[in-house]
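Final paragraph of the annual report: two paired records, presented back to back.
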Amino acid sequence: MPLTTTKKQELINVHQTHATDTGSVEVQVAMLSERVSQLTGHLQQNKHDFSSRQGLLKMIGQRKRLLAYLKGISQERYAALIAKLGIRG
């Protein structure tokens, strides 16, 4: 269930910080969030898919580490990203 090329490009265009940005923290968190939401839907249908559940937990941990890094660098960028993605309650 990887992201399609068009979906990746849309996420990059929405969350990039400059014209050639493809790997900033914002873009990485946005891609991980999209994959987490896709995988969550899959796991609601397939409750016994434990290997996908393990991958989901790894993605959530990676997203959490990236967000902690971003929060340490810039509180404003962190708050803007959280609001834009609608995560963290």
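The closing record of the year follows.
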Amino acid sequence: MRFVSIAALAAILAVGLSAQTPPSPSTVPAGESPTIRVEVEVVNILCSVRDKHGRLIANLDKDDFRLFENNEEQEIKYFARETDLPLTIGLLVDVSKSQERLLDVEKLAAHRFLSEVLRPTKDLAFVISFGVEAELLQDLTSSLDLLRDGLDALRLSAPVGGVLPSPVPTTSKPKGTVLYDAIFLASEDMLKDEVGRKVLVVISDGVDYGSEMSKAEAIEAAQRADVMVYSIYYADPRYQYLRDGFGVLKRISEETGGRIFRVSRKWPLERIFAEIQAEMRSQYSLGYTPTNSVRDGSFRRIRIKTVRKGLKVQARRGYYATPRS
């Protein structure tokens, strides 16, 4: 989670006025009153809340939440429901050999999702495919036509000869599905400097072959960029001999505050995309000033719970206290 600087509101000015140095007369234009600004470091957390039946709860207030950083309770100073923050979505689609029969379905469902969730004047999206390599098919844009063209450009990316890497561990590192590299690049190169809500939607069977980055490095990149990862586990039964990647995708999503879905007859792609869309429209934004103000680059664990029993909060598990640049 990135620290952001904000101008203090009148309600908190009284706390910091004694520490301010009044501007000299030469710095204040004639006829104008001096303006005092206080820099406050705030950590912002987006979260969703569900009941025991999995239904989204969208009517909670600030007093319904308790927030802890490294097990020390923090005061929630800023709170909003159904935030209107800009949304940036990265769609990462697995185009390795094991996804060959699924690509056409993915194209149609993904375009429908983007057309329903993106607001043309506020939101942006991009498309990356990953197989033997990660490829940016469409850069950041609000144009649905360009995004559709990017999705239409999805093509199978398999090793020479179309042979999948062996499921038996070897000392070599054949490239087949660079899942971790794709998440790292999307987080570091595409989303790190964006503002507002940032989401990656990954469609894959979760099996990584040949990435230069590790799973831990991919997760860290997403956390440092404030990115929530929603994973859609989509596997072709013909490749059941491959190791199961569901647990990999689940770990990545849970660490970043997203969710994982498994495509099935009950949960087709269209329904999963609709669920992700509903969740993004039912989020809470919580902001607090950490009691530990030292920016030592360490990872701070975050835990959020509700006063009401039987509710589950879905949020990222922490942030990096990155030094000010």
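Residues 223 and 256 are 6 Å apart (CA to CA). This concludes the annual technical report; the extension proposal builds directly on these records.
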